[in-house]
Amino acid sequence: MNSISTGHQDLIHDIAYDHYGRLLATCSSDQCIKVFTREFPSAEWTLQSSFKAHDANIFSLSFAPPQYGLILASCSEDQTVRVHSSVDNGHTFTKVATLSDSGGPVHHVVFARFGGHGLKLACIGTDGVVRVYHAADPSDLRQWHLAFEKVVDQDRLLSNGVAARDLQGDFAVDWCPSGTVRASGLTYGRGVDMADSELPRLDRLTIAERAVEQFVVSSMSKVIVFRKLDGGIYEYEPAEELAGHTDIVRDVAWASSAGVGGRYELIATACKDGWVRIFKLTPQRTGTRTTESRNGTAGTVNGDNENGVGENNLSYEVELVDQFDDHKSEVWKVSWNFSGTVLSSSGDDGRVRFWRAAYTGKFIALGVASAEQGSNDEMED
Amino acid sequence: MFSFTPSSTSGSGQSSFSPSFGGPRPIFSTARHVGETPAKERSGAPKLFSSPIATGRSSTAEDIAYISEGEEEMDDEDDGVFTYALQDAPIVAGRLQDWQDRQRTLKFRLPPLYNSGVAWIDGKKLDGGDQVPVVPEEMKIYPAEIPDSAFSDEYTKFVKDSYELYRALTNTDHIGRPIDPSENNLPKYATTFLQMLDAARRRIFDERLSEAYVVCHCLFASYFADPGTTRAEALMEWLNQYDPRPTTEETRDIMTAPLPYDEPGFWELVHKLAMRGLFFQCSNCLKEAGVIYADSESKNAMQTATSILETAPKGSKAFGGHRQWRARAITFAEQVAKLSDVKLRKGLIALANILRGDNDTILALSESWQEATAALFLFHDPAPSRLSEYYQKAVVEFPVDLTVISEAGCAAIIAGDIPKALSVAERLDVCVAAHMADFCDRQRMLDDFYNVATLDLPPFRDWLFMAHAINCCANYGTWFIGAAYLRDTEGTEGLSIIRETITHVYLDSERTLTELLDICKELQFDKEAQQIVIAWSKLQLSRNQFGSALEWLDSIGNGHEIRAIAWQLLESSLLNGLTLPDSILQQYLPSPQLCPVLIREFIAPYAIYFAFKNHLKEGNIVDAAQYLASLIQFSYLPGRFFGALLGELIPLLDRRRPRALPTAELIAIMNCLYQWEKDAGKRAEGIQFLEVCLSATREATDLAEDDWRIEYPNIAAQDVVKLVRSKLIKELSRAYLEGE
């Protein structure tokens, strides 16, 4: 497939696909968003609409799940998140809401991908605060409720609470794709074994599922999972920390757990230190709910209190399962395929590297797509 | 170093990348660069791993892990990762460092379902710090596919054909059931699969698919041979196809000579034909050799040789007749040892030794481990249990070339290490590997592997099918095939992937929708079915197919969405004027009894408005007024619509017309107005929406003649409310004056 001239007048900072991968939106420093439609089966992208969406650089954008209609959120250096809606299959978009709670440029915005817990988006910017907005009535997109906000990494922010422009920083957020979690521990004490092969498969698939909303957020070099159980009874709380990054984390991506039958979750990070890291989060037996239990060390979990095991909490055992420094330079983006079995990473080496899960779950190099000419069908030097 | 047009802040313009301005070589390429598709068309084989094949033991799950992971560690060390250039790759070869100096980076994102993502170039200083001018290549997006995952049209045909065969086999066979030889359909299906694969690789011209064919053929020859042939014959047939010797040219060169027997390569040709089990060709060579016999013993020996060759036992008779035939060859060897013609004696002794299965002779005359193994198997003792022994002897003389993937796969098969062979085949083509595993699983060849090694991992067959199914799901037009494979796997992974992907399948038609809903129903994916129907209804709404959207939402009992749509219809009508509804709504609106209950319940406000507008259009003022009055008094009317509906009252309060509303209705409306104004929130919403309606009038060019806003082009929303209140009071006084 050929390259496509987007028509942007400046650098492109982010792209987003709609739920079907049929629409592609791009955003740029030219303050515009452009939406392309994919033709099938030719897989060519054709420009469908273009509109000025912000008053400054647009850094990130995200499509909402399709059951809420065709909705696009974008965030910008103008310190706002804006929500745009289309009622004509993406030919035109209308701004329906402006969310301006951020104290600085907003770097990253992403809609929750699961549909069960309502229309929600998370964003983070240079103020280091992760915010979650909720459209309580999705039929009225003008109304968004700031459901949650928290400083992710207080220690690393400047005293005024906003990262200075000359201090290089980066921030990213991604939702767990599933609105549920499956864990053997959730059936603990109920006389049910999720892995019991005698149980019908469909029962095994759903028996230990529990509603959960969680996202992973990076602020500078800190990466933390936030979680809320059971659809809104509690607030999001910082839970696991994905430790080991020695420099600014550029991107985070939460994989679908479908490829492993929901047995565990995978989160990938792209870091300025040149490493792509893959963390495995395995659900653990539940502990008594605590309000502040993260202890901030690598691979530790909250609430896993053997002396007070209850049923209300969920925790993960965190393990760094793989890490790659093949880029030999800064890594800026990580992205998973739909089943969580293929990871892509890209960075300063001008290459997209693909990794795939082997039989045992470890990741191996699959191939490289290079932006440098003359790289065809050759072994990398 | 480079010359650019104005900077990013003033637009991109054209960059001048000519060498005269741009230094020795530009970083970016403006010339079209033809990249390679990384999919099934690519060629080139990555280096293979070191392997424990030669040990002859079967792989364990740890070995499989070792294979996959170890190989890539080697890749890392040797940098042997397959690389392809993006189409129109923007960085000129060798100028990566210069590109990096521009403070640029490459970003890439995969799509939700398909295997083709998009890469783009971004700056590294986001917050206004980027002063490097932007060039056109930085305003493009570059599609990039996951290597080895994209299906060409021809490959898609192979995928579909192999699925059909799999389905047919599944319908006649049951995995795990003890195989009754008389009912064993596997060889028949294996032959068909191999033919399909052969046709596909010839159509596609793909090196790796051809290698996969070699491995698959080897497996099927070794374990799924037609009952009419022995494994030894099938293996030799595989070898003769994979590595044909002697070549047609070699045979022709010698046999078309005036006196073939005098050609230097004559006996070599004869021995090679014999080694390859090509007995009739071998016999013909001897007959056509033009030998001038020195004595009758020589002539008799030659006749015996051709007789032995022509009576070699074949197929089902081979096992019974082999021992007797071999005894003839042994006797023949003793006989020819006494011949006086040295040249003839040497040639026939070697031939006799081949036919009697002499290890040293066969190994000495072989050129590869495959040839040696197949020949020992064919001539020494064709009992399948001895194949591994022959393989071990052969690889001592001819080590396996592990840098050729297909050779490694075949070696694993012949060594009896099926899991290893499958994992090697997976590197060539996961579709072929999955089907190979399926045949092995049906023959219960993987039982030991599952029982001992896999612990809590999914069965290897299932894992391969999942990998193939994921590729199917990621390619246009094969999602349903992927889902069918996933449904057939054990464990919950397959179902999880279906559940994850099913809502991502683009709803291009109602048929796709119903097929997806059928799967949801079968697998009890209720939430996903709801999501799919809601997404479909949204699509229908965007196509103005409101009736269809409502009916689908009714089918899942989603009153919330139906209500939202009903209000959306009313809002749209108040804003843009009443337009002709789609055919389904046209049927429902005048005849509410035809509506499903849920739709009837929520569509009522819009239906009343629809009736009001129709009566108004037809001049039935009284009826129109009754409908509008009842809508204004509707208890659950959202406050935002109240102001616009008040506006609709204006033409009905025209004193030039007969009175349309009775006193009681007028009082009730005034009361509603009072209540609405009392609620500051509702009033603000209503005024805001009314303003939008009024401004829409100013921009619209095609309002209906009876639209009340035409007469008040510049009125403010607040004034509309005042005007209506005033008109209501006047109408009320008129009612008192005129009496009921």
UniProtKB/TrEMBL annotation, chain A:
Keyword Isomerase: no
Residue spans of biased composition, Low complexity class: 299-309
Annotated transmembrane regions: none
Renumbered ranges of WD repeats: 324-355
Membrane topology: Peripheral membrane protein
A GO cellular component entry from the record: nuclear pore outer ring
Primary site of residence: membrane
GO molecular function, one term: structural molecule activity
Disordered: annotated segments: 287-309
GO terms classed as biological process: cellular response to amino acid starvation; mRNA transport; positive regulation of TORC1 signaling; protein transport
Pfam families listed in its UniProt record: WD40 (PF00400)
Highest taxon listed in the record's lineage: Eukaryota
Xref: SUPFAM superfamilies: WD40 repeat-like
Record family assignment: Belongs to the WD repeat SEC13 family.
Protein name (record): WD40-repeat-containing domain protein
Organism encoding this protein: Lipomyces tetrasporus
Lineage: Eukaryota, Fungi, Dikarya, Ascomycota, Saccharomycotina
From TrEMBL, chain B:
Ranges of compositional bias, category Basic and acidic residues: 33-44
Any one GO biological process: mRNA export from nucleus
InterPro entries recorded: Nucleoporin_Nup85
One Pfam family recorded for the sequence: Nucleopor_Nup85
Keyword Nucleus appears in the UniProt entry: yes
Biased composition (Low complexity): 1-29
Cellular component, GO annotation: nuclear membrane; nuclear pore outer ring
A Gene Ontology molecular function term of the record: structural constituent of nuclear pore
Presence of the UniProt keyword Protein transport in the record: yes
Keywords tagged on the record: Membrane, mRNA transport, Nuclear pore complex, Nucleus, Protein transport, Translocation, Transport
Cellular compartment(s): Nucleus, Nuclear pore complex
Region listing for Disordered, in residue ranges: 1-56
Described purpose of this protein according to its UniProt entry: Functions as a component of the nuclear pore complex (NPC).
Subunit text: Component of the nuclear pore complex (NPC).
PANTHER family tied to this protein: FROUNT PROTEIN-RELATED (PTHR13373), NUCLEAR PORE COMPLEX PROTEIN NUP85 (PTHR13373:SF21)
Family: Belongs to the nucleoporin Nup85 family.
Designated name of the protein: Nuclear pore complex protein Nup85
Species this chain originates from: Lipomyces tetrasporus
